[in-house]
Structures are given as structure tokens and as C-alpha cells.
Amino acid sequence: LFRSMAGEAQTEVLIVPRTQRAKVTVRNLVTHAFAEWHLDVYRYALSIGLQPAGAQETTQEAFLRLFVALDEGERIENRKAWLFRVAHNLALNQRSRESRAGEWTPELAEQLADPAANPEQAFLERERLQRMHSAVERLSEQQRECIRLRAAGFRYREIAAIIGIKTSTVSEFLKRAIEKLRKACHE
């Protein structure tokens, strides 16, 4: 720490070695990313069928892996897509360890429902979520993943990168899924 005195004004200059500056920057990047996307990653893990504790663990592990990758100098152009790809893989592994994979529970409906709604609105929202969940469960696994990621705001090419398929395949999965959901909602 270097201090100098110029009249009444005091200036402090923090001298940090270059290697530590990089870590501070990585820490700041990951902290900012966590603040911005942790709820999205958590909800995505829940939507895959993880229990809340597993979704939390998956979210934390995804951000930890982001920190390690950036700290080791890996270039990640789209951190959000990268995080969701890692969370996707971790969640699938975690889900295979959990015996209740994909099971719709009242607790999940509560977590996904709007906490500011009055009791009647909350009930109607839970019912709507239950109908939508039933319709989504009838989709293929790939269609469900594409719908989840598109709902999270990802573009087709980002979804393709996260899931590991072609962009044209994402388009086709989404088209078919939306058609099936439209039919299910009008039954």
C-alpha cells in the first residue's frame, strides 16, 4: 500500500502483483455472473427434475467450475451458455443419482409459483403449472430440454451448444414441442 500526502488530500494506491490482479478480475467476473444468473441456473436444474438440494448443489458446482476454468485461463466467450451447459450435464448426472427424477411435487410447484400472489391466485397458478408440467412431460427429453433453455432466454445456437446438437435440430425440436403443447392446452 502506497500513501502520499498532497496538501489536505490523501491518495492511496494499492499495488497488486499481476497474478493476483487476474484472480481479482476472475473473482469479480464470477461474482457478477453469480448475482445475475444463479436463480436462472437453479430454476433450470429444478426444471430438469432435481430436488431443491440437488439443484442448489448443481448451481454451486457450475459456478465453481466457471471460476476454475477462468482462473486457469480458459477463454469462455458466452459465460451464460457455458454455465448452462455445465449445469445441464451436472443436473443430468445428479438426476440419475436421485431416485425421484422428474417427479412433480407440490414443493416444486410452490417454488415455481409467484410468491407475491394471493391464496386464490397461488392456487390457480399451481393448477396451471400442474397442467403445463403434464403436457411438458409428454414431450421427448430433447424437446423438453430445448423448451427449458428457450424459456431461459437462450438463442437456438446457444441451445445447440448447451445440449450438443445442431441448430437445425433445435429448431425442429422446438417446432414439434410447441405444436404438442398447443394441442395439449386446447384439449
Give structural notes.
This protein has 187 residues and is mainly alpha-helical. Helix content is 72%, strand content 5%. The chain has 8 helices and 2 strands. Strands 1-2 form a two-stranded antiparallel ribbon. A hairpin with a 2-residue loop joins strand 1 and strand 2 (9-13). The longest helix is centred in the first third of the chain and has 31 residues, at 18-48. The protein is globular. The protein starts with a strand and ends with a helix. 25% of the residues are buried. The model is unreliable at 1-17 (pLDDT under 50).
What order do the strands of the largest sheet run in, or round the barrel if closed? 1-2
User: Helix segment count?
Assistant: 8
Strand content: 5-15%
Mean pLDDT: 79
Query: What gap, in angstroms, lies between the N and C termini?
Result: 70 Å
Query: How many DSSP-defined strands?
Result: 2
Helix and strand content put the structural class at mainly alpha
Low-confidence stretches: 1-17
SSE string, helices as H and strands as E: EEHHHHHHHH
Radius of gyration (CA) equals 21 Å
Cα shape: globular
Helical content class: over 70%
Main sheet makeup: 2 strands, antiparallel
Identify the notable features of this structure and list them briefly.
mainly alpha; globular
What is the topology?
Elements: E1 2-6, E2 9-13, H1 18-48, H2 52-71, H3 79-97, H4 106-112, H5 119-137, H6 141-151, H7 156-163, H8 167-185
Antiparallel strand pairs: 1-2
Helix pairs in contact: 1-2, 1-3, 2-3, 3-7, 4-5, 5-8, 6-7, 6-8, 7-8
